[in-house]
Amino acid sequence: MPDIQDPNQSILITPEGEITAINPTGKTWTLKELQAHVGGYIEVYPLPQKRGEPKRILVLNEEGLLHGLPKNTMVSAIFGKDANIVGTVVVCPSRMVR
User: Fold this and answer.
1) Residues with Cβ < 8 Å from 66, sequence gap 6 or more?
2) In angstroms, rounded to a whole number, what is the distance separating the alpha carbons of residues 66 and 50?
């Protein structure tokens, strides 16, 4: 069973707070796979890197606010009180996205 605490594992975080370990069909994520997970065009943000861990990115729906997607409170908290991250997001090692 995949470990969501593993920094090498990709995870999906829903607005409802559900966290699920996910994997690409190959070694890296395709654009279509990421778009399917977030429900549309993607936008990518780097996440703070911890010493000794791989660089990770946050992938979200670029048009989430325009489409009125629900706020993802768990992920918004990472970026501070004024952040308004909406919809389902994917967190994965940056090396897994080409």
Assistant:
1) none
2) 33
